[in-house]
Design a protein that fits this description.
Blueprint (H helix, E strand, L loop, with lengths): L6 E5 L6 H15 L3 E5 L8 H13 L15 H14 L3 E2 L6 H7 L10 E2 L6 E6 L17 E5 L3 H16 L3 H19 L8 E7 L18 E7 L7 H7 L4 E4 L2 E5 L3 H22 L1
Parallel strand pairs: 1-5, 1-6, 2-5, 6-7
Antiparallel strand pairs: 3-4, 7-8, 8-10, 9-10
Helix pairs in contact: 1-8, 5-6
The structure holds adenosine-5'-triphosphate (ATP) and ribulose-5-phosphate.
The site of ribulose-5-phosphate has 10 residues, from loops.
Length: 290
């Protein structure tokens, strides 16, 4: 936690929708005049695409079938923790980009599967925004949530998460369904051990639930739309959350537990604005007073 230089950490598996959620945050930052600097979790992968393949082959030959981008060891989590710590203390730090596809290659001038050079954050930011796989990991080496002031989980139910990943990886990154299915299978061990434990560390989880049949996610022809889904929003600590205000403002919503509200999928953006804007305002106000 850093009152002076706050950090927001948005955590989700690959294809969960963290980049989509970042868009909503960007709108709030713009409207509220908040200057944020951002980190993508993929910037902290340990290997470029070619070296990752070599490392995977080496581990396979040695009988390790559980290694993947979800594994702690495939990522520079200590470096990430150092960036969180440094930003919290001084408001400075650095990041880079992992380039996934040709569009990003054109944007960053680096081929797909490579990293850009490290570059310092712009000076004078109000907060740091992280979005990625590992922003709330606690293990023997790191404790990331202790540095973050607001932790958000983006966790569609698993069939939907797979559909979102398969469609995004096919359309934007040029992979086949079979290749994405292999990746999902290979990542399952680390999904259970490295990804999901984080969602008990998060302050708020947004869980999209389809209300159409997704029994076979591998053959779904499109991603269930917002109108074909509900979102469960769960607050770790419901104290101070004005549920009656939220339920009255978000048409069609209801409380399913004392700390959870269910909203129609199409109201996700509105719900995020209503819930997150005052939280972000408070973080920035307190940072200016610290
Ligand atoms: N609320 C939503 N409603 C409908 N589609 C969504 C929603 N959230 C995400 N998607 C779709 O799911 C796919 C994956 O989303 P996104 O790129 O945001 O995932 P991600 O978590 O950032 O993935 P990665 O970390 O691997 O880059 C995209 O095609 C996106 O349009
Ligand atoms: O989205 C991901 C993790 O969040 C990617 O799977 C990871 O960054 C590796 O990318 P690629 O398979 O394109 O080299």
């Amino acid at each position: 936690m850093s009152k002076k230089h706050p950090i927001i950490s948005v955590i989700g598996s690959s294809g969960a929708g963290t980049s989509t959620v970042k868009h909503t945050f960007d709108q709030i930052f713009r409207r509220e005049g908040v200057k944020a600097v951002s980190i993508e979790g993929d910037a902290f992968h340990r290997f470029n695409r070619k070296d990752m393949k070599t490392e995977l082959d080496r581990r396979y030959a040695a009988g390790d079938f559980t290694f993947s981008h979800f594994s702690y060891e495939a990522n520079e989590l200590k470096q990430l923790e150092n960036v969180f710590r440094q930003y919290g203390e001084t408001g400075t730090g650095r990041t880079r980009h992992y380039v996934h596809d040709n569009d990003e290659a054109e944007l960053y001038g680096v081929p797909p599967g490579e990293f850009t050079e490290w570059a310092p954050f712009e000076d004078g930011s109000d907060l740091l925004f992280y979005e990625g796989l590992h922003g709330a990991v606690v293990n023997d080496e790191v404790n990331l949530p202790q540095h973050a002031d607001l932790k958000i989980g983006v966790v569609p139910v698993i069939n939907l998460e797979w559909i979102q990943k398969i469609h995004r990886d096919k359309e934007k990154r040029g992979y086949t369904t079979e290749a994405v299915t292999d990746v999902i299978l290979r990542r399952m061990h680390a999904y259970v051990h490295c990804i999901i434990p984080q969602f008990t560390q998060t302050d708020i989880n947004f869980q999209r639930v389809p209300v159409v049949d997704t029994s076979n996610p591998l053959v779904a022809r499109w991603i269930p739309t917002p109108d074909e889904s509900l979102v469960v929003i769960r607050f770790k600590n419901p104290r101070g959350i004005d549920f009656s205000y939220l339920v009255s403002m978000i048409q069609g919503s209801w409380m399913s537990r004392a700390n959870s509200i269910v909203i129609p999928g199409g109201k996700l953006d509105l719900a995020m604005q209503l819930i997150l804007t005052p939280m972000i305002e408070r973080l920035v106000l307190e940072s200016k007073r610290a």
